[in-house]
UniProtKB/TrEMBL annotation:
NCBIfam families: fliI_yscN. One of its GO terms (biological process) is protein secretion by the type III secretion system. Residues 57-82 are annotated as: Disordered. The gene is fliI. This is Flagellum-specific ATP synthase.
Length: 398
């Protein structure tokens, strides 16, 4: 049985096992083994499922270890040594490409409660995003959901360019935490080789919960809603490792899911992660209940790469659509109860017309794709049909 030293005090060292406590008894011999937290990723890993320690979980005859070492618990590149974020990364998810665009090297959070289509959105991104290699970290997931995600959501098409790192919820907290580190280390390896990597982690909340178990076991005091201080120091250490590489390297575009307890977007982990990342996408239960997927709440979602991530024409179209959606949201209650009289306000009338067509347009099945330029052209047409004037920059138009 292997373990890790997680604390030290007057009474001695504190250890946690990488497995269960079964068979461990007082008086057992403990031996210090000098070992590095190291894996050796290789291109042969693409298309395989590995555990938190980098061992294949699925039959993989071609699986071999590479020549270069990658540390699981690595340090982020120095800020002054990194390139800036790159060009737009097309996801072919209409709502994201239009309203919350993602640039190469950006880090985005997907904030969602349970059962609002988080896994389906992750699968859509894995299948359709313009990335060379996809690394998926499934941290603390139920065993049944892991198989469902790999076989049904991701499918052979998505798996063909993916490496999946898995630590299920029944595994030791050390392994759940390690899975997040290993997934990030694999992504860092391919970034160093000049690849464009999409790193998706589901979920960073369960990484935080694993660290909470470790921290409390080592005697740390619970502070913010039961989370010890190390949770909030480990989060930026993990999330800052994604992003652009140095000159001559590739980028890691990070997408991290955050489970919000009771749809509370201000609970401690959600609040901390939102402050670290470069934007967030909010999945809304009310929209999911209306059977519109992906259930992205446009008004509550934001990309901090705007306006630079869009062209001037795209940004103008997006702004016009956002303003109309905000107008509709302000009047929605009155509209639903019949208190608003059509014709009393031209701006509201136009917002209602746009909302009906745009809401249908943003609904997207898992296998549906649309290029970003086609999405903008369609929304521009909807704006004009709704009677909303859009003054495109003189340099060009849609």
């Amino acid at each position: 049985m292997t373990g890790e030293i997680v604390g030290a005090g007057d009474s001695g060292l504190q250890l946690l096992p990488f497995g269960t406590w079964d068979g461990i008894a007082v008086g057992d011999r403990v031996e210090l083994i000098q070992s590095d937290d190291v894996i050796r990723p290789d291109e042969s890993w693409i298309g395989t499922v590995i555990d938190a320690l980098g061992r294949p979980l699925s039959p993989a005859p071609q699986f071999r270890h590479g020549n270069r070492r990658a540390r699981g618990r690595n340090s982020p590149p120095p800020a002054y040594d990194r390139r800036r974020v790159g060009a737009k990364l097309e996801t072919r998810v209409k709502c994201i490409d239009l309203f919350t665009p993602i640039c190469r090297g950006q880090r985005m959070g997907v904030f969602a409660g349970s059962g609002v289509g988080k896994s389906t959105l992750m699968a859509m991104l894995a299948r359709n995003t313009d990335a060379e290699i996809i690394v998926i970290g499934l941290v603390g997931e139920r065993g049944r959901e892991v198989q469902d995600f790999i076989e049904e959501d991701l499918g052979p098409e998505g798996m063909a360019r993916s490496i999946v790192v898995v630590a299920t919820g029944d595994e030791a907290p050390l392994l759940r935490r390690q899975a997040a580190w290993t997934a990030t280390a694999v992504a860092e390896h391919f970034r160093t080789e000049g690849k464009q990597v999409l790193l998706m982690m589901d979920s960073v909340t369960r990484f935080a919960m694993a660290q909470r178990e470790i921290g409390l076991s080592s005697g740390e005091p619970p502070t913010t809603r039961g989370y010890p201080p190390t949770v909030f120091s480990e989060l930026p250490h993990l999330l800052e490792r994604a992003g652009p590489g140095r000159e001559g390297e590739g980028d890691i575009t990070g997408i991290y899911t955050v489970l919000v307890d009771g749809d509370d977007m201000n609970e401690p982990i959600a609040d901390a992660v939102r402050g670290i990342l470069d934007g967030h996408i909010v999945l809304d239960r009310r929209i999911a209940e209306q059977n519109r997927y992906p259930a992205i709440n446009v008004q509550k979602s934001i990309s901090r790469m705007l306006p630079g991530c869009h062209s001037s024409e795209e940004f103008t179209i997006m702004q016009a659509a956002r303003r109309a959606l905000a107008r509709y949201a302000d009047m929605e209650e009155l509209i639903r109860v019949g208190a608003y009289k059509p014709g009393s306000d031209p701006e509201t009338d136009a917002a209602i017309r746009l909302f009906r067509s745009l809401d249908d347009f943003l609904a997207q099945k898992r296998d549906d794709t649309l290029r970003a330029e086609q999405s903008f052209a369609e929304v521009y047409r909807m704006l004009l049909e709704a009677g909303i004037e859009v003054a495109l920059p003189s340099s060009g138009g849609k």
